Amino acid sequence: MALWNAVASRLARQRSWTAGVGSSRALSSWWHSVEPAPKDPILGVTEAFLADPSPDKVNVGVGAYRDDNGKPVVLECVREAERRIAGSMNMEYLPMGGSVKMVEETLKLAYGDNSEFIKDKRVAAVQALSGTGACRLFAEFQKRFRPESQIYIPVPTWSNHHNIWRDAQVPQRTYHYYHAESRGLDFASLMDDVKNAPSGSFFLLHACAHNPTGVDPSEEQWREISQQFKAKGHFALFDMAYQGFASGDPERDAKSIRIFLEDGHFIGIAQSYAKNMGLYGQRVGCLSVLCEDEKQAVAVKSQLQMIARPMYSNPPVHGALIVSTILGDPELKQLWLKEVKGMADRIIGMRTALRENLENLGSSLSWKHITEQIGMFCYSGMTPEQVDRLTKEFHIYMTRNGRISMAGVTTGNVRYLANAIHVVTEST
Length: 428
Description:
transferase, Asp_trans, NHTrfase_class1_PyrdxlP-BS, EC 2.6.1.1
């Protein structure tokens, strides 16, 4: 009897194991239709660069600031803010809307220190997961409360903009922006698109340092754009990822926004501290929407918080503390203004050096657009095939649309980069 029980027990275990294998096979079939996602066109460049063993390799695809030695930078104002924060704060959750102090200081940067809109409490604002998260929150808000609307996005734009509104299921249209022949702004076509769009359309605008082209409208052109928006009743969402980092002056870089505010627009603004404070990994940002009055602002903010709740519940605290500490202290804020100007000036200096090196090589092409564009990126005008040659023959990495990250250009590699560009552009 004991022997029989032992055999029965063993058979039962085998049946259980066999059933488990069958169950596992059934479970694994759930995902058989999942294909590998395409590589991100920007992040894929860095992966290829890191895998290249060449000592001469150059990465001008990275969208993050580097010093003249090609190294990542942590601002001294950030280090000092961290020293002050260390050990002095608890780790409790922030509210759904994030750090009140950080949001207050962030609004001053965009709307102005003495903004009547802030004083009248007409701005609905929440902390967001950097600029990407701010755009994502707005896209969801747009879908929820203006479900019949579309979003007009410039050609070209930062590639993730399309992903953001796609995932929010907001229909997308495009408007002309870049003029390939002049390497500048296609202003006439842009204005035609704004004029011909259905009244009350939503438009995504880059406040400054347009990514990827580095081409911005002039102040007068911004005024014309604002007037046409007013005539058509369009809504403008400004993505402002480079305030201070474009020209070195945060006030100058916010000029487009101030023009729209002066003209009486109700606008939205997505702000980020990734670039201008070097807080890339902290994901600190803000979404704000200007409303008719305080009552409407309270309602809009409450809905933005409700959208955030199932996405990520509430935003992280450390980066917000860094920002509020810097902007809330006059001494640290002045240090930040000095450091962000230093970063902008280095980028501007590298633009001049790259252009001069190309011209000194006797290039038959015009490279004036390098210094006429602004911000981290230069839209070089090179073709995908020319970019491929730069990578294959010279170990120079950038996105295939010809976008050069000027942050990757240094005094040590600018001559090599210029020579390589000269070779591939003169021989094709």
